[in-house]
C-alpha cells in the first residue's frame, strides 16, 4: 500500500518536469555512453575477426612448425584429411639492392608461398596482375617478387629492378597492396616481401638451424571438426612441436590485444562514471533540498519516513533509467555513425551493429553507480523530523544513514567492482583501479576539507585588510556550503586521471628517446651459422668504433610440460607458454648472470639435462629448484630438471633467455647464433655493408627501428587512454556546471547583500571569479600530486623506466583546472549580478 501511494506522489511531483535532474541525466548518460561505445567497438572487432576468421588465417586451419618443414609422413597426413593444403614459409631477412659498397639494405619479413596460396581471399597488386605471373619467371631469367610499397620506396626500387634475398636475386614485378592473411602473421620486424617458396631453395636462408616458420594452411571438408582434427594430429605426431590454429580464432594475437585494450578502456570509463557519481549525488542532494517544504508537509500530514524514502527513490530511479537509456542509445549509435571512419582506420575487419552484451554491461555499471551515490542522501531523509525540516530550508541534514543502507551501498560497490573484474578478466588491474579510485576520493575529500580550513583561516587573517575581493573569495570557500568539496571531487579526479596519463606518456617517450639508445644495442644479428661465427667476431672486435659484442647459441622450442604435467594445466594463461621461446645452452654462466637460487652445473657436466630458468617467471607459474620442465625442440621433447633460477633483464634489448640448458642436452641439435653489437653511429653503415656482403644469410635487425615501431604502438594506446581520460574530464566539467547552477540561488542572495553594503558589480564579479580560480587551482594541485604519484607507480613499478616529473604537463593540468572552474563559475555569475537587492531581500522574509 505504501509503495503504491509513494508511486502516486512521485508521479505527481514529477509533473513539474525534470528541473534539477539534468546533471544526473547528463553524468549517467556520458558515463554509460563511453563504456557502451568502447564495448561496442570491441564487440564489432571481435565479430569481424570471427566472421573473417578463415580469411585472416588463410584457411580453415593452420599447422605451424619452427625450424623445419613437415616431413613426408606429416605431409601425407595433412593431404589425406584436408581438401586443399598450402605450404608457406615465413621469416625475416635483409632485402639488398646493388653490390658491395653501393648496396642498400633493409629488413623485411619474407613470405614464400606455393601455387595454392591464398586459399581464401585475394591478393591485390599494383599494377594488377595474376599472382602466378608476378612471382613466376621474368624476362631476365630470375624469379619475380612483390614488395610492400614502403620497402620498395625505402630501397629506391622501381618495377623491373633487381633485389636480393640471401644469395638469390629476384625482380620486383609489382607492389603488394593487399595481403589477405596479414592478420595471421602477428608482429613483423619489417615490411612484407612475397616470393615463391621454391625460389628460396638456393637462397641459403633456410638452412639447418636458421629461424623460420613453416605453415600449412588447410581447407577442410564441410562439417569437419577442427578440434577432432587437432587431437588426431597430436595422437599421430605427439612430438612434432606443431602449433594449431583454426578459423574460429584466425588472429588470436590481435583478438587478445583488442580484448585487453578494450577492457582497460572500460576500466578508465568506470573512473569517469565514478566522477559522474559525484554529480549524481550532488543532484540528488540539491533536489531533496529544494523539496524541503514538500517533505515537511508530507511528514506533517502523517507520511512515514519509509514513504518519503520510497517517493524520492522512485523519482531518482526513474531519472536514472532515463539517463542509462540515453547513454545506451548514444553508446550504440556513435560507433554506428563513425563506422566508415573506424573501418578505414582499423587494421582488422569490424562488423558494426548494436551488440546487447556491451550495452547490458554498461547499463549494469550505470545502475550500480547510481545506487552507490544516491542511496546515501536518500537514506538520510528517514532520520529527519518535520520540525527540523521547517526550520532548516537549506538541506536535508547531516549524519550517517542507517546500517542497512550502508550495507546495501557496500553490496552495490562490491557488485560493481566484481562485475568489472569478471567482464574484463583483469582482476588485479580492476582491483587496483577500484582501490585507486577509493583512495583518490579519500584524498580529494581530505584535500577539500584542508582547503576550506585554510580559506577560512586566510579570510580572517590580518593580511586580508585592504584586499576585500580576496577576502570575500576566501570567506566563501571556507563557508558552510559544499562548493569546495563538489569542485575538488569532480574536477580533481578527472584531472588526476589525465595527469597520470600525461606523466606516464611523457616518461615512456623520454625513455625511448634518451635512455634506450644508451643501453640498447645498435644491431641484433640473427642466423649466424657456427662456421661463420669466428669471422663475424673478428670483423667486429677489430673495429675500434665497436664498443661491445655479445653472442649466444640459440634454438627455439615450445614449453610443453611443467612438473611432469601438461604445461597448459599448470599455467594456462601465461605468456611464456604461448608460441615458441628462444632457448640457449652454456657450460658456464654468461657474463653478468646473477643466480638467485641454486647453482650452475659444472663445465664438464655430462648427466641428465639441467635447466636454468628466469626467477621472475618461475615465481609467476609456481616453479622451484628440482621441478621438471619439458621443451619441444625440432620435434624432440627434452625434459630437464631446474638446477638454478637467475635474473633475466629484457629492458636493455640485449640477449636474454627465459631458459638455458646444459650443453649436453642440446648435443647434435642444429642451431645458429645470435649477436648484439654496441657501436658508434659512424660504424653502423660499414658494419651492415661488410657483414651483409660477407654473410648474406645473416639478418641484421636495427634495434632503433624496432623500438620506434613499439613506441608508435604505445603512442596509439596512450592516445586512446587520453581520450578516455578526456571523457572523464568532460563528466567532471558537467558536474562543475551543475554545482555552479545549484549555487546560483545562494550567489544571488550574496550579491544582493554585497550590493546593499556598497560593493560594485566589478568587485562582486572579481570575487566570484577569484573564488572559482582558487578552487580550480586547488583541484589542479591535488591532481598534480595524485597524478604524479600514479605516474611514478606505473612508470617505475610496471614499465620499469626512470621517472622524471614533467613540468609542462603539470602546468597544463593546473591551468586547465583554473580555466574549467572559472568558466563554470562565470557562466552562472551574470544572473546574481543583475538581480535587484530589494527584490531579493524582500523574498527572504
From TrEMBL:
Give the species this sequence originates from. Paracoccus hibiscisoli
Q: What is its main location?
A: membrane
Q: What is the lineage of its organism?
A: Bacteria, Pseudomonadati, Pseudomonadota, Alphaproteobacteria, Rhodobacterales
List the GO terms this entry assigns under cellular component, sorted alphabetically.
plasma membrane
* Membrane topology qualifier: Multi-pass membrane protein
Q: Which UniProt keywords apply?
A: Cell membrane, Membrane, Transmembrane, Transmembrane helix
Segments crossing the lipid bilayer: 21-41, 261-288, 309-342, 362-379, 405-423, 429-451, 484-504, 722-743, 764-787, 807-830
Task: Tell me the ranges covered by the ABC3 transporter permease C-terminal domain, including all copies.
Answer: 268-383, 726-832
Name by which UniProt lists this protein? FtsX-like permease family protein
Q: Where in the cell is it found?
A: Cell membrane
Q: Which domain of life is it from?
A: Bacteria
